[in-house]
Design a protein that fits this description.
Helix content: 55-70%
Number of helices: 5
Order of helices and strands: HHHHEEH
Shape: elongated
Strand order of the largest sheet: 1-2
Low-confidence stretches: none
Strand content: 5-15%
Largest sheet: 2 strands, antiparallel
Structural class: mainly alpha
Distance between the termini: 61 Å
Length: 106
């Protein structure tokens, strides 16, 4: 069963795994060393991320290295972009209000 990408990234451990492998491809054992959990637990997180296509495996001898799938994350970023315009507009308006208040106090 394919996982929902938003459920996948909702978990803090899975987000931490994505952050780790965005820097460097890692094996499941190497990932497990970074967390206070078993390799089996990390493997379950890897499975969810793989099913969502957020990570890609690469076989090297007997090891499997997982890479960050930037293309899939770009799809997420594209979806969020439609909301980014809204919050940036609101933050710009807040900056103007705060600047006006600050100038009135001087």
């Amino acid at each position: 069963m394919k996982q929902d990408i938003f459920q996948a990234i909702a978990d803090p451990t899975r987000r931490a795994i994505l952050t780790l492998i965005a820097i460097k491809a890692l094996t499941p054992n190497a990932m497990a060393e970074k967390f206070d959990m078993s390799r089996q637990a990390v493997s379950k997180h890897i499975k969810v991320l793989y099913e969502c296509e957020l990570i890609k495996p690469e076989h090297s001898g007997r090891e499997i290295y997982y890479h960050f799938n930037a293309k899939k994350m770009q799809e997420l970023d594209n979806w969020l972009a439609q909301f980014r315009q809204s919050w940036e507009t609101q933050f710009n308006q807040l900056d103007k209000v705060l600047s006006t208040i600050k100038q009135q106090k001087i």
